[in-house]
Design brief:
Order of helices and strands: H
Shape: elongated
Number of strands: 0
Strand content: under 5%
Structural class: mainly alpha
Length: 42
């Protein structure tokens, strides 16, 4: 059985700087994603 793969495309809000986007993506969104791992349900 092949391993499931997740691919996501993300964009920053208009007017948001690259630095602000990285700050949101890594500490804020990353910690939320780590706390709530994806589950595969059958």
């Amino acid at each position: 059985m092949p391993t499931p793969t997740l691919i996501a495309a993300i964009r920053h809000k208009p007017g948001m700087t690259h630095q602000a986007f990285l700050h949101y993506l890594q500490p804020v969104h990353g910690s939320l994603a780590a706390a709530n791992p994806l589950r595969i349900r059958r």
